[in-house]
């Protein structure tokens, strides 16, 4: 059997390697030629490539299940296995730059005998009736029995055969900047994320490989003042005043190795495999990763959900006796039950957090968002029976309904999720204005 995988990001690479190792001849198509020998890989068209990532335990689980040598290579390349205190080994994640993660995948893929990496553009599908027979790649017909679209959230390959997506803009944007520890400085003293909620914005510090770290500031997309954080001087001034960021952006200890990077156009979306009538549109065509669902990246769910999908799809495709139509139906049903709830959870979480950023109180009598329920566990530890599996993505968001009333009782006492110490949104905006004025002053 022959397969074409369109898109060589983490999800496409995983699919290509797995299928090749299970005996298929695979052509993996991507516009990017891969990492150059001299470094400086830009990964054009992939906005999130230079932004921070944390790879949850679901990523490790999928890799160990299908391509265990990739996990070993990631650790050898400097990726930091990350396990929160008290958690079992199977909850181990990975602190690592996305560029390192993808470079390891590309290096291993280049050595895979039945996998061909093709630099180019997949123009359109080729079909015979309602069956896929391949794709036109750079004006040439590449024959295949299976075509997998792992093109990401913005690509349009085979976009017209499915029902439209649900969702849209999540309402948040962010900026990040990458740093390297100076000689003699401990990069982070561990591999754990450090996040903090502030009045009107969110900050996260990401440990990474090769003595690097990234810091992230998440804001409402409509906040024009905080949008100025994309300027280096403004970002530096703000970071120095925020306790969660200041130690990790101190120029005496950490050297910035990028300018400030802006991230926008963030979405919460969901799209199944079927057409508007609920039918399999084309036999042998499958969508996976961001082509199925996107979520606000601040919660770090994207690659985890994508690889969870891909892991199951690989098993379904290589089961004996299963028709492609049956695989599509089963895969779509699984995604409806196991991926769509995370999309729906993020839609509500983001909507309510934006209201809080705007100064509104939590609606105690309405549905309580997941982040608030989890925060309430600090007051009522019994809430952790559901909040822990939810935060660890061991159970779908519906588990929170079992403790929602306990969180509501906590909120009725007047308690609210606490904010981290440091400046609020208006004070950061004032720091930004001062930094801009100083940069523009005559010298």
Give an account of the 3D structure.
With 443 residues, the chain is of the alpha+beta class. The protein folds into three domains: 2-167 and 266-339, FAD/NAD(P)-binding domain; 172-263, D-Amino Acid Oxidase, Chain A, domain 2, CATH 3.30.9.40; 343-412, no CATH class. The chain is built from 13 helices and 20 strands. Strands 12, 13, 14, 15, 16 and 17 form a six-stranded antiparallel beta sheet that branches. Helix 1 (10-21) packs parallel to helix 4 (98-110), helix 2 (57-66) packs parallel to helix 7 (302-317) and helix 10 (370-376) crosses helix 12. The termini are far apart. The model has no long low-confidence stretch (mean pLDDT 95).
Question: How would the blueprint of this fold be written?
Answer:
Layout: E1 2-6, H1 10-21, E2 25-30, E3 54-55, H2 57-66, H3 68-76, E4 80-82, E5 93-95, H4 98-110, E6 115-119, E7 122-128, E8 131-137, E9 140-143, E10 146-149, E11 166-169, E12 172-181, E13 194-198, E14 201-207, E15 212-220, H5 232-241, H6 246-249, E16 254-256, E17 261-263, E18 267-270, E19 285-287, E20 293-294, H7 302-317, H8 324-338, H9 340-357, H10 370-376, H11 384-391, H12 404-412, H13 425-440
Parallel strand pairs: 1-2, 1-10, 2-6, 10-19
Antiparallel strand pairs: 3-5, 4-5, 7-8, 8-9, 11-18, 12-15, 12-16, 12-17, 13-14, 14-15, 18-20
């Amino acid at each position: 059997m022959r397969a074409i995988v369109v898109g060589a990001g983490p999800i496409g690479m995983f699919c290509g390697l797995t299928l090749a190792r299970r005996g298929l001849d695979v052509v993996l198509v991507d516009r990017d030629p891969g990492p150059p020998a001299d470094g400086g890989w830009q990964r054009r068209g992939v906005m999130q490539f230079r932004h921070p990532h944390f790879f949850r335990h679901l990523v490790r689980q999928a890799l160990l299940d299908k391509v265990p040598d990739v996990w070993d290579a990631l650790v050898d390349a400097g990726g930091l296995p990350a396990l929160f205190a008290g958690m079992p080994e199977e909850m181990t994640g990975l602190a690592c730059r996305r560029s390192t993660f993808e470079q390891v995948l590309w290096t291993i893929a280049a050595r895979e005998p039945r996998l061909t990496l093709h630099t180019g553009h997949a123009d359109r599908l080729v079909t015979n009736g309602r069956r896929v027979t391949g794709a036109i790649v750079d004006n040439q017909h590449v024959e295949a029995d299976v075509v997998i679209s792992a093109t990401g959230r913005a690509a349009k390959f085979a976009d017209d055969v499915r029902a439209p997506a649900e969702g849209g803009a999540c309402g948040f944007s962010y900026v990040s900047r990458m740093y390297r520890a100076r000689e003699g400085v401990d990069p982070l003293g561990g591999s754990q994320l450090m996040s903090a909620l502030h009045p009107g914005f969110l900050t996260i510090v990401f440990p990474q490989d090769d003595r690097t770290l990234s810091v992230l500031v998440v804001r409402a997309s409509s906040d024009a003042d905080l949008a100025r954080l994309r300027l280096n001087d403004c970002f530096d001034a703000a970071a120095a005043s925020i306790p969660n960021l200041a130690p990790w952006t101190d120029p005496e200890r950490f050297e910035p190795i990028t300018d400030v990077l802006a991230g926008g156009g963030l979405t919460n979306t969901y799209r199944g495999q079927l057409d508007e009538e609920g039918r399999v549109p084309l036999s042998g065509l499958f969508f996976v990763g961001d082509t199925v669902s996107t979520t606000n990246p601040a919660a770090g769910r994207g690659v985890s959900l994508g690889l969870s999908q891909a892991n199951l799809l690989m098993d379904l495709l290589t089961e004996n006796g299963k028709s492609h139509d049956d695989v599509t139906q089963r895969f779509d049903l699984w995604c409806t039950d196991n991926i769509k709830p995370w999309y729906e959870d993020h839609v509500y979480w983001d909507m309510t957090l934006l209201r809080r950023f705007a100064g509104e109180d939590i609606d105690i009598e309405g549905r309580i968002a997941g982040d608030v329920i989890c925060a309430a566990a600090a007051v009522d530890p019994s809430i952790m029976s559901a909040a822990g599996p939810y935060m660890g993505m061991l159970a779908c968001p519906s588990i929170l309904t079992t403790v929602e009333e306990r969180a509501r009782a906590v909120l009725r006492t007047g308690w609210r999720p606490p904010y981290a110490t440091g400046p609020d949104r208006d004070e950061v905006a004032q720091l930004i204005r001062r930094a801009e004025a100083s940069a523009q002053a005559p010298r």
